[in-house]
Amino acid sequence: MLVLGVDPGSRITGYGLVEKKNSDITFIHSGLIKSHSKIPFYKRIHKIFQSIVDIIGHYRPEEMAIEDLFYAKNIQSSLKLGHARGAALIAAVQCDIPIFEYTPLEIKKSVVGYGRADKEQVRSMVQMILGIKGELPLDASDALATAICHLNWSRFESVVR
Q1: 70-86 pLDDT, tens per residue?
Q2: What are the pLDDT digits (tens) for 115-160?
Q3: Type and span of the H or E element at 18
Q4: How many domains does the structure of the chain reveal?
Q5: Which residues pair with 33 in a beta bridge?
Q6: How distant is the alpha carbon of residue 131 from its chain centre?
Q7: Theoretical Cys-Cys bridge with 51: which of 33, 45, 88, 156, CB 3.0 to 4.6 Å?
């Protein structure tokens, strides 16, 4: 199963693709969707939408996993994050890809084993799990962690059924 993981953000959205065959999880691709803060917000949101549509069209993932909203003290940041999530969600719906949402706590627990792990700990574990050497941007590693979380969760779900 090929899964697209998404870590939404209004200026930087991370994405990553991982594939699971039998019990092996393989890194396929990851990257960042970046927009300069001087670009109008609505254009940044459209870029996220269009980029996710393009990624889905190119790689043809079977499912998308996305980080769910979490409580934030800054309301303005929360609203912008919600718009970025919405753009990615609508892209997946348009491409008829099933969507699965996970909280940051669930993702960190699934990948690191500790729900309060910092971004560097998550990146280290993602690199170890996927055998990635070299530089991996934090937003891309968060997206890959989201995809790994989904694969771990779906494995658990199939055992429970």
Answers
A1: 666 788 888 888 999 99
A2: 889 999 999 999 999 999 999 999 999 999 999 999 998 654 543 3
A3: strand 12-21
A4: 1
A5: 13
A6: 18
A7: 33
Amino acid in the structure at residue 49 = F
Question: Which residues belong to the active site?
Answer: 7, 67, 139
Half-sphere exposure of 57 (CA within 13 A, CB side): 8
Note the helical H segments in 6-137. 41-59, 75-94, 104-111, 119-130
Instruction: Give the residue numbers spanning the domain of 32.
Output: 2-160
* CATH code, 62: 3.30.420.10
Three-state DSSP state, 122: helix
Burial class (CB in 10 A: 0-12, 13-18, 19+), 4: buried
List the structure tokens of 21.
């065959």
50: Cβ–Cβ under 8 A, 6 or more apart, which residues? 91
Q: Are 123 and 138 in contact (CB under 8 A)?
A: yes
**Tokens for 4?**
């697209």
Which runs of consecutive H residues, i.e. helices, occur in 24-71?
41-59
Distance CA 88, CA 83 (A): 9
